Amino acid sequence: MAEAIQKKLNAELEKYTQMQKDVRKSMSARQKLETQLTENNIVKEEMDLLDSTNTVYKLIGPVLVKQDLDEAKATVTKRLEYINGEIQRYETLLKDMEKKSEQHREVLSSLQQEFQRAQGLAVGKV
Amino acid sequence: MAEKGQVNIDHLDGVVRLREEHEKVVKDCESRVLHWKKVSGDYEALNERLQTLPDQLTYDIMVPFGPLAFMPGKLVHTNEITALLGDNWFAKCSAKQAQKIVNHRMKYVKSELEDLTKTMKNFEARVGFAKNLETMTANKSDYVDIREEAGNNDTAVSKGKQRIAHKPNSKPKLDAVLDLREDEENEGEGRDEESRKGILTEEELWARLDELEKLEELQDEQDRLSDNADMNGEDTSSLSSEEEKDGDAATPVNGLSLKPSWTSVPHSKASTSIDRKEEEDDEEEEGSSLPTIFFSHTVEPKKVRINTGKNTTLKFSERKEQKEHSKRKKKNGHNNGHSHHELHKITTPADIYRLFVDVKNGELIPRKSILKSRSRENSVCSDTSESSAADFEERRMIGRSFSHDEATHSDTSDGITEEDSPTAIPLHPANRFEAFSGTVVEKDPMPSAVPHLTIVPPALPTILERKQEEVAPDAPPPEQAPKRVSKFKAARLQQK
């Protein structure tokens, strides 16, 4: 009896750790997106400081490719929107993961209690 | 107690951990601040370089070749700068334009730095608090937990709105009520030590009393539009009386316990009451790890202000009296007995006279006139002369020995009303004395009344006792120095 519970407990624990990992991954991805967001904001603002006399280049691999200032601005704006959308997505994902991990935690704790009880009984019996 | 000790230890661990976490955050903030400062320095250097770069057409420099070698070379096109804007975007611009970009970035860095310093300060403060909490949980000294039950906001709000600080004094209420209560308590439970115990057990009563007071106060406020000034005056007076009491070091818990009932009265009193409560709780706190003050705003009792004598007014809280009365009955059922209550119950003007009894030399001698302020000896309604001010402390002292009410008395019929006394304030006295015209109740020699009350069963707290020595023999004319009562209120009360 106690062994069965123990097995269950271990299984649940694994699932829970897995969930935690996923959560952490999503968290870090979101943080990266955050930094990109701020960076693109700065780029946008600095482009506003420039005028059309300056040439704008984009680094694609080892190549600096000439770009039009307006095009560049549009591109950056689009990128900003994309990043915002991604962040939202990750937010919802993170929430769901949190809820799931909570459930797992509860299951885990209840299993632990059972296990302890079973252990106690076993000890008593012995 | 062991449990509580255990709890304390747990709290301590938690608090220690909290502090450590806060400290971690602070360290993190510090490192980030360093980083940003470095960045800021770099940009400053860059700015300077950009400033000087276009000065010459070309520069002779040593060009780095790989990680280890340098080659002599020339720096050309000194005004053409290719700036990285971020996210793999580059822009060719002149030195001045580059400077603009750099300035823009500096702004960003500065804002980040500010945020970080703010956060750091915040967390440093939190660390301090956590440390305090730590010592607190460890030592359980010098700190008191103050808890207040939420609620009664309406009363507070309405009170705030309606009140206008016309009068400086609202002590009388407090004192009167306290005296009354004290008397009852004392009578029921004996003096001195008993009174102390009584106080301890009174905590709930006080809480209840506070609530009732608040309710009554609310009603009172509504009733008395013209009394706003009075209320304010009373409040301030009660506040001052409280302060006086505060000064009294000897005040036992008794005095303190009375204070809570006044929490509702003026918000200004709150702080003092809190202090009082603290002390109370300290004394009363038994098992908890921390002395806890259960603070509750209470509704001022409905009070009738009766002008008696020169400057005294009684504030009588009918409802509270009744409730307190019933409470006391329950509590001190065996002690007080019914006679007590009967005597205290005022349903007709005659009852007032019954209460205003002179000091008996063994007997209660009813007074002929309860309006007149007596000579120092046996005046029940003392006026607010300097002597009473001086006597106040005395009385308090003496009163203390008997009951815990002393502290709170000031003119306060209010205090009296709250305490025990007769349920109904006779309107007659009010009418007789004066329609309240805004006189300030200055002093309340209630303390002296208290002892009287204890001695004389049917005592309503005497309004103002001149002398505390008189205490014992004096019959307590319970009518507290009637607080000023507005005409309307007086009329209303009369009609009741």
UniProtKB/TrEMBL annotation, chain A:
The protein, known as: Uncharacterized protein
Organism of this sequence: Larimichthys crocea
Organism lineage string: Eukaryota, Metazoa, Chordata, Craniata, Vertebrata
Automatic annotation (TrEMBL), chain B:
Keyword Nucleotide-binding assigned: no
Localization: Cell projection, Dendrite; Cytoplasm; Mitochondrion; Nucleus
GO biological process, one term: negative regulation of transcription by RNA polymerase II
An annotated GO cellular component: dendrite
Matches recorded under InterPro entries: Prefoldin, Prefoldin_subunit_alpha, RNA_pol_II_subunit5-mediator
Signal peptide range in chain numbering: none
Start and end residues of each stretch annotated as Disordered: 153-198, 219-346, 371-428, 464-496
Keywords (A to Z) from UniProt: Cell projection, Coiled coil, Cytoplasm, Mitochondrion, Nucleus, Phosphoprotein, Protein phosphatase inhibitor, Repressor, Transcription, Transcription regulation
Main subcellular localisation: other
Acidic residues: compositionally biased ranges: 181-192, 278-287
Keyword Mitochondrion carried by entry: yes
Coiled coil feature spans: 106-133
Top-rank taxon, per record: Eukaryota
Pfam families named among the record's database cross-references: Prefoldin
Family: Belongs to the RNA polymerase II subunit 5-mediating protein family.
Function: Plays a central role in maintaining S6K1 signaling and BAD phosphorylation under normal growth conditions thereby protecting cells from potential deleterious effects of sustained S6K1 signaling. The URI1-PPP1CC complex acts as a central component of a negative feedback mechanism that counteracts excessive S6K1 survival signaling to BAD in response to growth factors. Mediates inhibition of PPP1CC phosphatase activity in mitochondria. Coordinates the regulation of nutrient-sensitive gene expression availability in a mTOR-dependent manner.
Name listed for the protein in its UniProt record: Protein phosphatase 1 regulatory subunit 19
Upper taxonomic lineage: Eukaryota, Metazoa, Chordata, Craniata, Vertebrata
